[in-house]
Design a protein that fits this description.
Length: 230
């Protein structure tokens, strides 16, 4: 005897599945996160046998002042650190990036990563005018801020012990600004921009709860993500 679940039972089952796995759909791969991490990894490795790679991409305040403003962005794609620091930073970017891409979508992920990262590098020029440097950590800080915005939003997790981490990170961001650490501004900017994007996504995608592409639907931009699937 073959069992055929009713539509109501299938709907209840899909609500408990991770984003993108309901109704027979495969989970969406975090393509943008993977591409950015891979590119940054390759360039970070190449800097050791070819130091000119770092010199071509890093944040050089004198060259930026001369008009090479694009270095505020290219500096995000090479990590000027020891090997263990490169591994830690890129692992954190990948972990937070997967969550942020699933919540906001790939286009808004890129906006958050590049804009917050460039702002972080700009504060690096302002607060460290004599230092040449490069790294993805400031862009990662922007992603952390955007993740905090989701954690504290109506579509975020309901558990207080999960939401409290967003408050901890925001307090840390304020502390970093006070200490003139360049990671503080992009973290707070990511939070503010994330809140704006979540509200914009909610207004732009009207519809009934549970409908694909609707706020509150897992996997939709600005929608609810099941913490068990992360």
């Amino acid at each position: 005897m073959t069992y055929h679940p009713s539509p109501a039972a299938m709907a209840r089952t899909s609500e408990t599945l991770p984003p993108g796995q309901g109704h027979g759909r495969r989970p969406r791969w975090p393509v943008v996160t993977m591409i950015v991490v891979i590119v940054t990894t390759v360039l970070s490795v190449l800097q050791f046998p070819y130091p000119q790679v770092l010199g071509a991409l890093w944040r050089n305040p004198a060259q930026i002042a001369a008009g090479q403003w694009w270095r505020l962005v290219t500096a995000l794609f090479v990590q000027d650190d020891a090997v263990w620091q490169i591994v830690v930073v890129l692992a954190l970017v990948a972990a937070v990036g997967v969550l942020v891409e699933r919540v906001y979508g790939p286009r808004q992920w890129l906006l958050l990563y590049l804009f917050c990262g460039a702002v972080g590098q700009a504060f690096g020029v302002l607060w460290l005018p004599d230092v040449n440097d490069a790294g993805a950590s400031v862009a990662g800080a922007g992603l952390v801020g955007a993740a905090c915005a989701w954690l504290l939003s109506p579509s975020g997790p309901r558990l207080l012990r999960v939401r409290v981490w967003a408050i901890v990170w925001l307090v840390a961001g304020i502390g970093l600004v006070v200490l003139t650490d360049m990671h503080g501004p992009p973290l707070l900017l990511g939070f503010g921009l994330g809140m704006v994007l979540l509200r914009r996504n909610g207004r732009r995608l009207p519809g009934r709860p549970g409908r694909p592409g609707t706020p509150g639907t897992p996997g939709a931009p600005g929608g609810q993500v099941d913490a068990r699937s992360l």
